[in-house]
Amino acid sequence: MIAAITVTMLAAMVALFFVAFMQARQKTSELQKVYDSCVDENEQLVDEIERVKQELHLIRLKAGESDRLKSAFLCNMSHELRTPLHAIMGFAGLIANPSMPEEDKITYANIINRNVDSLLEIINDIFDISQFESGDTSVEIESVNVNELLNSIQTWINLEKAYAGKDSIVVRTNKANKDNGFCIRTDAYKLRRALNHLAFNALKYSNEGYIDLGYTFSGNNIIDFYVKDEGIGFSEDKLGIIFSQFRQVDETAIRQYGGLGLGLALAQNFTTMLNGRLTVESEPGKGSTFRISLPLILSPSPE
Predict the structure, then answer these.
(1) In the chain, how many domains are there?
(2) In what order do the strands lie in the sheet with 142-145?
(3) pLDDT-based confidence at residue 66 (cuts at 50, 70, 90)
């Protein structure tokens, strides 16, 4: 009787122990899962903190670079504004001299006009870039005579060439369509400004050889405008910066070439607004070729 009770009690105790063991095991498993989850979350949190730290570091670097570029831009702009202003003030004072010969007055008046044009170009660039920054710009489609546009840019760049004393450079035009009435539909102002910037850039970085202005046709109704020069060119590592605002090929403190560093950025912006693409090929010492590829939308020739 006692033995039976003892066995029954032992069996009950074993059962209770087994149940307690299984409950403890389940609890341990649950705790292990919670622990593993906490470890995973902690690792994810550490990774996220590290990622945020890296992003903050990059933001600080970009902010510092942005501040440096803006400071350089303001310094360049101050120089680019003061140079023509000093020339205008100086030669205007000379013209005011009643004893000044008329021939000299005409020469000085031309110099004043040239510097006024330079000021207006700077103001136009700043106005254009501010419009892009604010989003306050739109596309105005009209009929554009392509060959007349190229001829006018050639005339303008030849004048700039004479002012710069680079008479050895030859500016040529290459027209895929010889019809003087060849017209397309696009924004005349934006296309002209984009090509002007590319042509002026070619002149600025060239001292001899040719500057070619032209266009060709490619598949899928595309017209490819191009500006090709035989200037200094640039290496592949500059491709990432030349279309950025305030950036230039030469950014050293004693850089040889002037300008605000807005020309190519503006050309890129104008091209994008025209649903086009601006590309470049360049080689140091051999020159560069910039291409503006636009949708070809023909327009009837004006009567």
Answers:
(1) 1
(2) 142-145, 183-186, 298-299
(3) low
